[in-house]
Amino acid sequence: MEVFEVLWPGPLTTIQDLGRFGYQQYGVPPSGAMDGLALRIANRLLDNDERAAGLECTFSGPNLRFLSDTLITITGGDLAPLLNNHPLPMWEVVQVRKGDILSWRGMRTGCRAYLSVAGGIDVPMVLDSRSTYLRSAFGGLEGRALRTDDVLKSVPVSSEKLEHLIGRTVPRELIPAHKGFADIRVILGPQADHFPEQSIATFFDSEYTITPESDRMGYRMEGPEIRHKGKADTVSDGVPLGAVQVPGNCKPIILMVDRQVTGGYSKIATVITPDISKLGQMKPGDKIRFHEVSLSQGQQLLTASQKMLDPGSFAS
Amino acid sequence: MVYPETRYLIAGDQNMVVEFGDEVDMTLNQKVHNVVSAMKQAKFDGVRELIPTYRSILVNYDPAIISFAALQDKLKALENRLDFSPLPSPREVEIPVALGYGEPYESDIEFVAQYSRLGSVQEVIELFTSRDYLVYMIGFLPGFAYLGEIPERLATPRLDRPRISVPAGSVGIAGEQCGIYPLDSPGGWRCIGRTALRLFEPSWQPPSLLQAGDRVRFVSISPEQYEHIALKVKEGTFKMKVTSQS
After folding, report:
1. Nearest CA in chain B to A127
2. Where are the domain boundaries for CATH 3.30.1360.40 in chain B?
3. Contact residues on chain B for A239, CB-CB shorter than 8 A
4. Contact A272 B50 (CB under 8 A)
5. What is the spatial distance between Cα A135 and Cα B233, in angstroms, rounded to a whole number?
6. CATH of domain B2-81
7. Which are the contacts of B12, defined by CB distance < 8 A and separation ≥ 6?
8. Is the per-residue pLDDT at A314 higher than 70?
9. C-alpha to C-alpha distances, A197 to A187, A233, B98, nearest whole angstrom
């Protein structure tokens, strides 16, 4: 079913799902939504498959004209969406009609909004995922960002199933507040022993600013230097999501969803999974502080964040 | 050198690094591949993904199914059962490469000939194709194989200024490593030749021509043969030479 056409693509709008798994051994990063929590909630509200694909809209959304009647949900960063020029509620299932026009007033809080449609965006699966990987130009829509005049389809869903979803929302407490500052929780390692005590103290005591050289691959940070005991380079090894690597210039880089899967800089710490979504809403100029948690605390926080999405948490 | 005791490192809330040593070494890398294949056979519940690298394995696991400690115990037990005599490489892949052919760039092979004091390009070609290479790991880009080691004599430092775009199929060297660019990409390795083979294709299963643990044999071809192979690859009629040991 043709669901909408693109009138203006916005600065960077790509199709993403929760990511591409099992192919890192072949050098393929997982990709997927930078704020996976927001995409999950959007899909959950619409009763979509958990792995359904939506649009990741960066800094501003795309202007769209709907080509059929359907339901949509917008979550994530508040980019002030408008439907036919009227403010559109976020975190809520909304009905749209053929001919309706979606536009955006611009970034208010956060920086990435997720637009899901009933059934999910229908593009071919590439390596078991619909996520776009721009650097190697595959996945999503022909491996690229949306352009003017693109027409996208959605996976068909029967309309009786949808009626009762209109107006469905998320409990307030599940909606994250995005500010220009965040405490980012990390677990030390795998190579914290490459850094002297003093560097680890600096890492936790300082404020770091996200620089403009930040994207879906990684966030480069500006702030106090973190010196190594010896050389910055190690023999290349695997790079997990959220790894905080420190290259020779002693400024940390947080590796995100489109990261290279192997790398040769020492990794002082790793961001816990629930805080990756928080980072996904942070933009150049925003500030963070790293906060240490233990492995067991980190895993408890992970479990808690997954529990938040239990079906019982959602009102109709 | 292989550590006397394997290290199990915490890498966030759902990853473990199983580290066997801290250098680029064939015996050490062989251990990585042996453990990876044993782990794939053992199929531990809760283990989602394995990324073999030069000297370690990044294990992605689901802490709701298996704890870090339980995973560590299972891995220790598995290692104790393993016999670390080198396994034959599962596959040997022959890659035809036009050495000295750098279009659209000038190839770095002359530089390598001078730097190595071998004097002639022909000698670089002979030395480079005189042995086969182990695929230590795939990384950097989808399908980018890190191969080694090249003869010590040929070891050449990277470019001071990386090129903005290295064409797909370029064979580069950096120190004693060698690699093949699967896609057009920025890169700082000294490019000594090009292959017309495709190294990565998302519609393949698996998507990468080369896999960690494979052996690669480079066969020197002329630029004319390169064009001929390129045509066949495009038509889909090129037949790869792959020898399977199993």
Report:
1. B202
2. 2-81
3. 58
4. no
5. 23
6. 3.30.1360.40
7. A187, A240, A241, A242, A243, A270, A271, A272, A273, A298
8. no
9. 15, 19, 51
Q: Is the peptide bond before A212 cis (omega within 30 degrees of 0)?
A: no
Please report the domains of chain A, with CATH numbers, ordered by start residue. 2-174 (no CATH), 181-307 (2.40.100.10)
The chain-wide mean pLDDT, for chain B, equals 92
The model's pTM is: 0.94
Q: Do A190 and B55 touch (CB under 8 A)?
A: no
Which residues contact residue A174 at a Cβ distance below 8 angstroms, ignoring those fewer than 6 apart?
A41, A308, A313
d(CA B8, CA B46): 17
A222, containing H or E segment: strand A218-222
> Cβ separation of B17 and A190 shorter than 8 Å?
yes
Residues from chain A contacting residue B53 (CB–CB below 8 Å): 236-238, 262
Question: Cβ separation of A262 and B63 shorter than 8 Å?
Answer: no
> Which residue, A76, A62, A68, is CA-closest to A14?
A62
Tokens representing residue B99 in the block:
């050495």
CB contact under 8 A, B12 and A303: no
CATH topology of domain B91-244: Cyclophilin (2.40.100)
Which of A25, A123, A259 is the best mutation test for B, with the most CBs of B within 10 A?
A25
Cβ-contact B6, B77 below 8 angstroms: no
Which of B4, B21, B5 is CA-nearest to residue B56? B21
Distance of alpha carbon A309 from the chain centroid: 16
Q: Before B182, cis peptide (omega within 30)?
A: no
Residues of A at the B interface (Cβ-Cβ below 8 Å)?
21-28, 126-127, 135-136, 138-139, 187-191, 234-243, 260-263, 267, 270-273, 295, 298-299, 301-303, 306
From residue A210, alpha-carbon distances to B150, B155, B222 in Å are 40, 38, 49
Largest Cα–Cα distance of chain A, in whole Å?
65
The minimum CA-CA distance between A143 and chain B, rounded to whole Å, is: 11
Of residues A27, A187, A271, nearest to B143 (C-beta):
A27
Question: Do the bridges between strand B15-21 and strand A233-238 make them parallel or antiparallel, or are there none, so unpaired?
Answer: unpaired
Phi and psi of A162, rounded to 5°?
-90, -35
Q: What is the DSSP letter of A40?
A: H
Confidence label for B187 from pLDDT (cuts 50, 70 and 90) = confident
What mean pLDDT do residues A221-225 have?
97
Tell me the pLDDT tens digit for each residue of B46-70.
999 999 999 999 999 999 999 999 9
Write the pLDDT tens digit of every residue in B148-183: 989 999 999 888 888 888 999 999 999 888 999 999
